[in-house]
Amino acid sequence: MISKDPENLRDIAFREYKILVKEENEVNEEVLVRDVLYACQGIDGKFVKFNSEINGYAVVDYINTPRATKVMIRTLSELGWLFKKVKTFVSESMVDRLETVGQAFCAALQYEARAPLDTVFTDSALSKYLRVFNFLWKLKRVEHALIGIWKTMKPNSFVNLQSSVKLQLLSALRRCQVLWNEMNHFVTNFQYYIMFEVLEVSWCNFSKEMEAAKDLDDLLAAHEKYLSSIVGKSLLGEQSQTIRKSLFVLFELILRFRSHADRLYEGIYELQIRTKESGRERTKTQESSSWISEGRKAITQRAGEFLQSMSRDMDSIAKEYTTSLDAFLSLLPLQQTVDLKFLFFRLDFTEFYSRLHFKRKES
To answer: Which residues contact 193 (CB under 8 A, 6 or more apart)?
Structure first.
């Protein structure tokens, strides 16, 4: 019957095609969830893509999805929109500062905050977020500097130098390692305090208050309390200006130490290379002003001058660091927050700094 009726055959084929297209266009929930996760990272999925007309991520038009699902996906994908704003801001700013990420986050929200984000992320809240992000990036930069020094401090096979120069080299390396241990002790304990005593505790309290919130006002109050807790405990409040300045002085000294340590180890490495080359026969292409042409005696003399200069700079940084750290620790017991007093206990658990401070007072 069908074979004798071409029209009927075409109708059946068309109906089967419509059913096939409908089945292909119906996307299951697992695939949509995967695409939403992609969208939150600023990546277009198979069915959830960035739509420039609505300035946000949305489900493509050619698939059959309930309207409620489309609205929910667009709402969940707001983080992807925010990610694209941050990425654009960072790429356009071209500012060589670690605080750029925090500034980009807040600037993106301020640039085009949409409901319900603008209800939660008020100007006051964004200002606090910016202060916290800047502070965390500064702390991370200092930690990265110390890690870089630690990677540089590798065992060196000492070259054949005079005994006096070799002693200067050992002394400089020893001072560098001791100062690194002191700085690393402070930064590690301070970072643990920020991560676990401030951020994690504040977030746990905020999560509990969010669950207990009965309306939007309760949620906004919990959010404000959460930010105020972080700002106060992180020394970012108005009443902590003095101790915050003292802390940032320590950060700057650690960054100076990183630069100094790099110059020291680069000089040692160069000294090893030049000493090995000085043992070879000098060629006509060597410049008369180079270390190689001046011979081992000149190399030893310049090495001694270099190490003396490095040792003086190291002593200067160590002295400034000790004075600044003593000033910072002396301010901790005077703070209102109990957590800051616990930070002092964490840093001075062996009472090393207390005894050192007492000796200075006696002298």
So the answer is: 339, 342, 343, 346
C-alpha distances out from residue 251 to 98, 102, 181, 257, 315, Å? 14, 19, 15, 10, 17
Gap between the Cα atoms of 152 and 144, Å rounded? 12
Can you tell me the distance from the alpha carbon of 309 to that of 290, in angstroms, rounded to the nearest whole number?
20
Task: For residues 176 and 315, give the distance between their C-alpha atoms in angstroms, rounded to a whole number.
Answer: 10
315/318 Cα distance (integer angstroms): 5
- Which amino acid, one-letter code, is at 108? A
Amino acid at residue number 177: Q
- Measure the CA–CA gap between 281 and 309, rounded to whole angstroms: 30
Separation of CA 120 from chain center:
25
The stretch 82-100 carries a mean pLDDT of 56
Tokens describing residue 323:
């004075």
> Range with the lowest mean pLDDT among 193-197, 284-288, 306-310?
284-288
Give the pTM.
0.65
